[in-house]
Amino acid sequence: MGGNGTGSIVVPPGVLAPIPGANSFPQTANFELSHYVTKKVVSQGMLDVALLMSNVSQIKALIDTGPKHGYFYFLMTMVSISSFYRLASASSSCCWAGSRSSAWNTRWR
Which of 15, 17, 75, 96 is deepest in the core (most CB within 10 A)? Predict the structure, then answer.
């Protein structure tokens, strides 16, 4: 099975393996969930900012081109809708995170 004759599986260092008796979530001895969540939230925020900057850049290019472009109104509508949904998503996630943080802290601490 594991190659060592004991029937156990040998897990190389650095590979996530389930801890016996714990939930089925893979963990290592030094795995911190809060650190992972923090990195995930920061990277998601940076992606949100990048998409918003891209939308602003596209709107600026469209305005410079003007309505003489054949797809001006269609592209302006699509980029505006994308920007609106991105801002709505960001504001709702901020409001949701703020309302959840107090309940989360009292339950898990």
Answer: 75
